[in-house]
Amino acid sequence: MQQEQANQHILSEGQLLSERRYDIDAVRVLAFGLLIFYHIGMFYVQDWGWHVKSAYQYTWLQDVMGFFNQWRMALLFTISGMATAIIMHKQQPGFIAQRMKQLGVPLVFGMLVVVVPQAYFEAKANGAFEGGFFKFWLAYLSLQSWPEGAFAGSDPGVTWNHLWYLPYIMFYTLALYGIRLIFEKAKLTFFSKINSFHVGGWIATFILVLMLCGTFIYPSFPYRSHALTDDWYTHSLFFSFFVFGYLLIRSDSVWEQMKKHKLRFLLVAIAAYLAMRVVNAMMTEDSSFLMSSLQLFCLYLNRVMWIMTILAFAYSCLNKPAKWLSYGNSAVFSWYILHQTVIVVLGAWLSPFTLGGPIEFMFVFLGTVLSCLAIHHYVIRPVPLLHPVFGVTGKHDKTQHNQQLQVIRDH
């Protein structure tokens, strides 16, 4: 009874259900929008491997990409943890089955259909395949063995490429649901106690958790494979951010503190980034354990503070309805599924024309945005059979569809 009352206090219906958190929706849409820019950048950044690469590559992009790379995926997993908390609180029967279907169907369809052009152009670029796309597709679906390094994920025969995020969210949802059941059966009051944490306590505790991951797990798994089964350092980080988001949105009081301290968060985030760059430049192969610990601290402080800054400013400025947000919520999942394939196809197609870096970039960027927009509106939305495979939820409404098109035209 005590636990149930505590949970009802933490997740009040007025805060999370009756009053929709538009700021969380906005951060989710903007974070996936950043993902599109980031993956276009991967086509152009010097010395960073990707599925296909432009002839025009730039070293200066490494610093720009490196800045966002510190927190972009961690932010998405934090937001996903928040969304999971809201969905779990509704206590709908069959929650797990429904969630697995929502994520699993687009994943399977994406691996068998959407991602295939990425693998095709990468295999051709690597000299691992000769022939047309449909010949490759048939070979891909047959799960045949490929030459080593034919394309990313070619060892099992098929790949999920950028869709790796989906199986990770599925795995984390199952794990968190199991942990929650254990806590409820044991009548533990941990969730009610964390509601009283000051925001500084949240930050310090979470950085400590990340430091433990970096100190004890990273040395045994010093890589990110995105293959799910062997990616334990990545799991330790992203599951931590997933749980962090799940817990953070359950605390009403911390959000007002975040709003109050948002400018301080920004200053600390900037200082943490600069400190991280300085410490990284000082590191050598013979650096002491103390220096390595300082490097980890700066790394995780930078990561956490940028996420807290983004969430704080969003809560302060974006927690209100907006026309662009209505469109973004309806389109973000299908755009996520489509965007990287569009980038790879456009990049591979434009490369022989030697347009020059800036002009080629404009074609790739505009082509990606317009292609995703057109496919979402004119192919996916009007065809109900495509809704499950592209993560489109709710019934298609022609009036709403036309209104969303008008929003795009007006802006």
Automatic annotation (TrEMBL):
The keyword Membrane applies. Pfam families: Acyl_transf_3. Signal peptide: none annotated. One of its GO terms (molecular function) is acyltransferase activity, transferring groups other than amino-acyl groups. Residues 22-376 form the Acyltransferase domain. Keywords: Membrane, Transmembrane, Transmembrane helix. The chain crosses the membrane at residues 26-45, 70-88, 100-121, 163-183, 195-220, 232-249, 261-279, 299-318, 330-349, 361-380. It comes from the Bacteria. InterPro entries: Acyl_transf_3_dom, Glucan_succinyl_AcylTrfase. This is Membrane protein. It comes from Planctobacterium marinum. The lineage of its organism: Bacteria, Pseudomonadati, Pseudomonadota, Gammaproteobacteria, Alteromonadales.
